Amino acid sequence: MPITTAINLASASVLLAAIYCLVNTGLVLLYRSTGVLNFSHGQLVMLGAYVMSNVEFGSYPLRLAIAAVAVGIVSWISYHALIRWLMGADEFRKVVMSFMLAILLTQIIVLVWGTDTREVPNSTDAWFALGSAHVRWSVVIDACTAVVLAVGLTLFLSRTLSGLRMRALAANEVLAAYSGIKVHRLAGLAWAIAGGGAALAGVMYAETTSVSLALSDVLLLAFPAAVLGGLSSLPGSVLGSVIMATLLTVCGYFFGGQWVNVMAFAVLLGVLIVRPFGLMGTSSAQRL
Fold it and tell me: What is the dihedral of CA 199, 24, 175, 90, to 10 degrees?
């Protein structure tokens, strides 16, 4: 393989890993802090890109911040409008509610923006030479953003009182409420943070393609990476994202894009059979 091709594949893998990482940190955060496996997360990713495409003033960082805050607020409202009423309910009802929320968010997006394809601006068009290949600085920026968010959330959950209370909430939300923990305040905060991270992922993903309803499909490929790393581990979600992004990029190059989904779900099936709690997750049992 020529060195230029190898560098380009590595660059594409890093960018894809950053997108998966931002998606999965939100999934894992909600799972670890509230015990909810949120299948409407792909719609939050899509919403972030649509909001970004509609903001036409200010610098790129300001527009990105507006998109993240807007989606964070929508995510917070979604929790308080729908999910909070299921406190103490079994996990199956929460999963079904997240699917209903996904449908609702999709319909709202269609009503507001329609189905036409839109565009978002690039964070930067600058590039640097690496050997004989040209690598965009946006790849480095996106990777650093994903790592900073993952490290920050890991420290938040493990080193702060609010983070520890969120973990107690995920273990038993009814008992946590009886213990005096502000359950809905903490859960709403977790949903807002996850929504903001999803918006960042949506904008990064839209820069490589375009803004459309298909953006929500990124969850279908990011979720196997989260399961591979372990749904109970934020560092595991980063590791799983890197491994999955590399596998899918190499698979797409050698065998064609039609095999990417096959590879992703083959890995997911293998993990569920061999190590269902993931590479860095903890073994547990739940009834759905």
Answer: 100
Does position 285 have pLDDT exceeding 80, yes or no? no
pTM (2 d.p.): 0.87
Give the separation between CA 31 and CA 286, rounded to whole angstroms: 13
Name the amino acid, one letter, at 111: L
- Gap between the Cα atoms of 240 and 133, Å rounded: 27
Pairing of strands 127-130, 133-136: antiparallel
Spatial CB neighbours of 200, under 8 Å, sequence gap ≥ 6: 22, 48, 64, 68, 145, 149
DSSP string, 18-63: HHHHHHHHHHHHHHHHH----TTHHHHHHHHHHHHHH--SS-HHHH
Cβ–Cβ under 8 Å, residues 213 and 46:
yes
What number is the average pLDDT over the span 121-130?
77
> Would you tell me how many other CB atoms lie within 10 Å of the CB of residue 94?
20
153-187: b (≥16 Cβ within 10 Å) or e: bbebbeeeeebebbbbbbeebeebeeeebebbebb
